[in-house]
Amino acid sequence: MRILRSLISLGLLGLATPAAAKTIPVAAGDSAQERLQEALIKAEPGDTVQLGKGVFKLTDGLSLAVDGVTLRGAGAGNDGSVLDFSGQLGAGEGLLVTSDDVLLVDFAVVNSKGDGIKSKGADRIVYHRLRVEWLAGPRESNGAYGIYPVEASDVLVDSVYVRGASDAGIYVGQSRNIIVRDSIAVENVAGIEIENSYNADVTGNIATKNTGGILVFDLPNLPQMGGRDVRVFDNIITGNMTPNFAPKGNIVASVPTGTGVLVMANRNVHVFDNVIEDHGTVNVMVIGYRYPFEDAKYDPLPRNVVVYGNQHGRAGFAPAMEGGTELAAALGGALPPMLWDGSGANIIFGDDDGAISLGLADPKAGMAAAMPTPVVPIEDARAAVPTISPVVLPAAMEAKVK
Amino acid sequence: MRRRAVLVAAALAVAALAGGSALVGAAPAAQVNQAVIDSDAMPTKLSAFGLFQPGGSVPISTVLPYELATPLFSDYADKARLIALPAGQKAVVGPDGRVQFPLGTVLVKSFGWTSVNGGRPVETRLLIHRASGWVALPYIWDADGRDATLKVAGGRLPIRFTRANGDEHSISYAVPNKNQCKDCHSQNGAIVPIGPRVGNLVFPGVGKAGAGAGRAALARAFTNPAALAGPVVRWDDARGASLDSRARAYLDVNCAHCHSPGGSASNSGLFLGRDVRDAKALGIGKRPVAAGRGSGGRDFAIAPGDPDASILIYRLENTDPGIAMPELGRGMVHREGAALLREWIASMPKATS
Questions:
Q1: ipTM summary value
Q2: How many domains does chain A have?
Q3: What is the nearest CA distance from A362 to chain B, expressed in angstroms?
Q4: Which residues of B touch A217 (CB under 8 A)?
Q5: Residue A235 has pLDDT above 50, yes or no
Q6: Per the domain annotation, does A193 fall within a domain?
């Protein structure tokens, strides 16, 4: 009788309240692929899938499609939890997340054949203390993106390390309300890239030894266009001199080696209070989209871009852009640290370290048509462009990284 | 049609038997286990659904076999497809040509090769229409072929098979995990069937005008079977349809489940559904977005007149997971499909600029 009663009460309890959040441990070792994937499928909202220490040798992409799940490892270092995709036979990325309110924390993804970690339509996703790396370093045969959230509202990338991506280490595409902070991007083609997105703060990051440090792009023929309201501040962007190793055809293959910050075809972009130095081409470049397109909804020109308060180091000593060598020669041997192609409107330089406009109102016009002129720095640059509100993410997301 | 032989033959034989047994008043036809189908259960064994006769992979008589004129390529696997409707209920052909199935329906797709295990299926995937939405479950057949076991995490199977043309292949065949089912079957966040659509749906034994021996079965299964009639496009039937419509049918079935505005590849802006008219969205002169090394050093998804400069061809003819398209369900190159798309791209006038 007592047993019966307790069974009934257990049953009622089960009905009355959501199942208690549980932790599902998954150890490295044999059949890791099946065990880990099964855990990711059977997890319920609120659950944590806890990876053990060690190397998980995986043969296929993993995927998570349950809302509110945490995938937590025992650390992102070599002695932590390493998801090793060196033997991957299928799927376009290492880990794919398609559900909302997911936290990924304290593990590494290495040598995935395609992208490292992709999340698509995964709102309020948090990437925290992760490492995505192609261990052989920069190679054209590496996957495209390391950390790759796309089509999401509310994205937090915090304290991650990405190395070797043949496109962008950290890439946020077609999303809104984004923070990328306190992260390190090394030896990727693009260190950090915000593309076709609205409201992003990129701050406190180190982008070094990439081809280009931090990119803010807008491209045509995509479901979400009109990239805008991006702040790039308090970052250390230095020595992004790795020769471009992107496969041809991709837009980042056109990024000149030795570019610190590259703003293309966005509006309302503020680049301030960064340390930017040791870039053979330039520290900051602002340009329009220069390829032909047929898309009436697309605006190829940059607008309301401001660059101020940055600490500039050496730049322009090895310009890798088209016509850069000739231009540098004409300017006495080097390019100034900031360059604008001359397209768009209200492109404001507050830094007085030297900026040049190529005078190309049409971004498609080649260097042959350039009429380089110095850009006079503006004292109160910040006041010359519309203000942008800081990005505020839902408190529950911030709580996950506290 | 020619080579899918064994699996379909088995299904047809059962359908024929069903008609016969009704005539002679034999035992009543077996029914699916509707209670299991309607529940939220994920049974470990496929037999729990009652879709197949006990102890094997022969479907019960009340299910309706169907085929697709242009199927998804899956490593040259033969596929046997079944519709299991709840007793007394019918499907409706919607105004958009897509079939609307009542709750309690199961769509069954079994994969096998004529030269493997005597043609018995290797895996069977279910799409179950439950109150919570469509649910996808992958089952792998046990070695003895008597039942199949749920593998939510999917798996890889070593498969050696011989094609009708004599070519031998040894592959690591990927059974999708439950989430991967969703990757392809997801439209605007919900799981939906892909194949059953007017213009691609074929019922064995039913002629083009809706005539034939299977007609009565269709009348039992559909409220508006007449809406199923009409031409279909077979990707490999050059006499039956134009090159353009065959290529578009192939892209529609093999690519558009992801490459559509509501699909998993929506962010690419590359939309390959058969109704897409915008040349750029279709890839003609379209630069890649997130292709990475999938670009193969080429500038455009489709370079008109130049298949060798088209990213689409590069990815179709590749099996490296960082390059290959589709991303899931293909470990081999579909030579004949790629040849069709090569011919199609070559036939386009070259861009003038």
A1: 0.83
A2: 1
A3: 18
A4: none
A5: yes
A6: no
